[in-house]
Amino acid sequence: MGKFLFFDIDGTLTDSDHGIQWPSESTLDAIHQAQKNGHRCLICSGRNLSGLQQYLALGMDGYIFSDGGGIYFPGKEPILEPIPDDLLEYLIQDVVHHRKGEIILSAMQTMYCSEQEYIFMSAFADQVEQAGGKMAVYRLEEYKGEPVMESDVGFASQAIEDAFMRDLPKGLEFVSTTASYGRGERTSGEVTKRGVNKGAGIRKAVHLLNGSMEDTFGFGDSMNDASMLKACHTGIAMGNGAQELKDLADYVTGDIQDDGLADAMRHFGLI
Fold first, then answer.
1. Are residue 201 and residue 168 in the same domain, yes or no?
2. The Cα angle at residue 136 between residues 135 and 140, in degrees rounded to 5
3. Are 219 and 8 in contact (CB under 8 A)?
């Protein structure tokens, strides 16, 4: 029986730290060979669906986006788990106005950003468009109430983030991603509806595909991939990933620039 392979994007399929927005030839060959061998390959990303647009051309079997807040199978309507409106309003007020932090609201096709994140994400959107994709980035004050599945937040210090975590309402879930990447000197984390994360998205996708979690492999590099590696039967961390994630993994492969993903797939007999 075929397996289910779930791939993070940034730091796993692509090397955004070096401006590389498309998987290497060896990575693409490995994925396509795995599909020929009867395995299903899906992306599992913190990006929203618009941010995945350029990767639809990869021919993946499915896309889990916004840290599990959305699931999309080609040809079908997306399945969404948005943050409730009252909790989203709390989040905006608490992060931006109370703690003077930065925030990005990720709707399905658009992103709404506080000022510093707007500058950062506008530059990143330019890179994506140069690679053939498209990201719609707007300022926070332009938000008009569409469903938001995930929110990136950042604070000026770890102490502020710790206080934010202590005060977080029970209806929200937060994962700090500072261990693997940062934004300047700020902390970095991601917020979803409670119970929504990459691991939960994978379990739901596998159920919809009539599969078994015993047949799952997860590939990631950042601490927002921790729930994915924990949920999958076999969790694989990239060599360039966060040490905290490597400590959770069943297997650590090579760096993204050293064909680590393809090597792991060969190691487990997937290709």
1. no
2. 130
3. yes
Same domain, 211 and 129: no
**Six token digits for residue 231:** 């949920």
Which of 12, 54, 65 shows the shortest CA–CA distance to 196?
A: 65
Number of domains in the chain: 2
- Coil, helix or strand for 149? strand
204 & 73 share domain: yes
| 168 closest CA partner among 101, 72, 265, 239 | 101
Q: What is the mean pLDDT of residues 101-121?
A: 93
Residue 134 to residue 85: CA distance in whole angstroms: 27
Which of 29, 23, 84, 52 lies closest to 257 in space, CA to CA?
A: 23
Domain with 186 in it: 85-193
Q: Identify whether residues 160 and 210 lie together within a single domain.
A: no
First to last CA, the chain: 14
Residue 101's contacts (CB-CB under 8 Å, 6 or more residues apart) are 95, 114, 153, 154, 155, 156, 160, 164, 186
pLDDT digit string, tens, across residues 113-160:
999 899 988 887 777 676 666 778 999 999 999 999 999 999 999 999
